[in-house]
C-alpha cells in the first residue's frame, strides 16, 4: 500500500459500521465468492494501485538486463507478462520465485485463438482502529473486457467505494453509504511499436516511490486519447484529455447557459533510451487550458508544436509546464532517478513582475536491492521539493487540478518531503514493508488564490519569501505492513501507522498524534468465456 493512500484513509471522518468488523469482512468475502479462479486480462491495463506494479518493480530492480523501467504507467498485462517471461531464472532467490509466481498467475494467458469475454472484479476491504474509532470500508471493482483479437481490447471497470462517501472533495453522487463511478472505460489498439487508446484510464508519468511531479494517479482516471510510438532508442507518448469543468463566478457568466469553464490537458513526452538496461532520459511538455465557450484547440492538440511558444503568441492563454526526468541503473540491483518540473522561471529582471519567485519542483531518489547481501530485501530514499504557486495560476480553470485533486504530487505545492522505505521477503508468502517520512508543508495550495506580493515592493528593491511559506506544518509518519500473499487472487495484510504533527493545519502551537492499526484484504477473480 502506498503511504498517501493510508494518510487519506486515516484523515477521513468515517463512522463505525454496525455488526462488527469481522462480520463485515466475511460479508464482503461471500459477496465476491461467485467468481472463479484468477485469470489474466491480456491487453487490459493494470490499475496503477495494483500490487502487480510493486512486484514488477522489485524484479526489474534485480534484472536490469530485461530493460523494464517505470517512467510511465499503466502497463498492459501483455507488456508486464512478457517482462516476467523474459527474465533469466537460473539463479532466482526464493523472493524472486515468489514475486514471479504471483505475477505469472495474475498476468500470463495463453495466446488467444478466438474472441473472448472476461467478467470479474476485485474487493479491497479495510477495517481496524483509527485514533480509537473502529472503522470498516470496502471498495468493489467490477471488470468487463471484450477481446475480439490479439490487437484490440474493449474494457469497462466500475468502482463502488464506501471510503469516498465522506471525502469532502468528492464530486459525485452519494447513495446509501456508497459512491460509485466508472474507473476504466476504453478501447485500446495495440501493435508491436504503436499503441492507441481512447476512453477513461489511469495515467502516470515520472518515476517515484508513491508520487510524481509530472502526471500522477492521485486524481481520478482521465478521459483521454493516448498514443505511443516505441522504437529502439526513442519512445513518444501523447495525451489529450478532458478535465472536469469549473464553475464560473457570477461576474464572468455570460448567460444562464454558460455557467462553466471547460478545461483540457495536453501533454507530449519524449523518452531517449540510451541503453534500456542503464539510462533513459525524458522531456515532457504539458498545458492546461480552457474557459467559457472554449473547446479543444488545434495548436494544443499538435504534438510537434512547442506549447509555451504557442500560448505566448495566442490571445487565449494556457498554463504550460516543462519537465525533465531520468532513470539511471549504474550497476546491478541499483537504480537512481530524478525529475525537474518548471512551471515558471524568471530569465529577465526588467520590472516588478520579474521579481516573481521561480515556480519549480524537483524529486531525486534511489533504490538498492539486496543491501548487505540480504536476499529478498531492498532499501530506498527519496527527496521532493515543490515551490509555492507551482501548478497554480491567476486563472482558476488553468490550475493543475482535476476533480478537486492535484494532477501531480498528492501534496500539491509549497512543501518538501524526505522519505525512506524498505522491504523484505520473509518466506512462506510473507512480506514486511516499512516507510518513514518527514514533511514540511507551507500554507500554499494549488487551489489557493494566486497572490503576487512582489508587485507591492518599492521600485529597485528585491523580493524574497520563505520556503515553505506561512505557518509551516511539520510532520513525521511511520508505516509498517505485514502482508501474507497466499495466492495471486488473495492477500491479507496487517498495517500500522504513527503520525506526529507540529503546528497542525498551520495553527501555531497545535500538536497532534495519530495512530492507526487496521487489516486490509484484497481478493480478485475473473471468468473468461470464448465467443467463437
Description:
This protein has 532 residues and is mainly beta. The chain has a single domain (3-530), classed as Porin (Beta Barrel), CATH 2.40.160. The chain has helices at 3-10, 21-32, 51-62, 77-86, 94-107, 298-301, 307-313, and strands spanning 72-73, 116-130, 133-149, 152-161, 174-175, 178-190, 194-201, 204-205, 222-230, 234-247, 260-275, 279-291, 319-328, 334-344, 359-369, 377-386, 401-402, 405-406, 415-427, 430-441, 473-487, 490-502, 512-530. The strands form three sheets. The protein has an 18-stranded antiparallel β-barrel, surrounded by five helices. The chain is globular, with a radius of gyration of 23 Å.
Descriptors for this entry?
mainly beta, 18-stranded antiparallel barrel, disordered N terminus, 532 residues, Porin, two-stranded antiparallel sheet
CATH class: Mainly Beta
Radius of gyration: 23 Å
Pattern of helices and strands: HHHEHHEEEEEEEEEEEHHEEEEEEEEEEE
CATH structural fold name: Porin
Largest sheet: 18 strands, antiparallel, barrel
Q: Residue ranges: pLDDT <50 for 5 or more in a row? A: 1-41
**Per DSSP, what share of the residues sits in E-state strands of 2 or more residues?**
35-45%
Termini separation? 40 Å
Proper CATH architecture: Beta Barrel
CATH superfamily: Capsule assembly protein Wzi
What is the count of helical runs? 7
Mean pLDDT: 88
